[in-house]
Write a structure and sequence with these properties.
It is built from 1 helix and no strands. By secondary structure, the chain is mainly alpha-helical. The longest helix has about 45 residues. It is rod-shaped and about 65 Å long.
Length: about 50
């Protein structure tokens, strides 16, 4: 018979706050990395096309 797990309310709210704080930092950082990567890709494609 499976037992139901009960997470204390304080632990759940603390976890949710930690996830929000992590996303607040990681999301803009990931977006900046993605934009930079795409920009570098386009730049090197243009350089390659112009030099060949």
């Amino acid at each position: 018979m499976a037992q139901a797990m009960h997470i204390p309310t304080k632990a759940a709210s603390t976890t949710a706050a930690a996830v929000r704080k992590t996303l607040r930092i990681a999301l803009p950082l990931g977006l900046a990395v993605a934009i930079t990567g795409v920009g570098l890709f386009v730049f090197f494609q243009l350089v390659t096309a112009l030099l060949s």
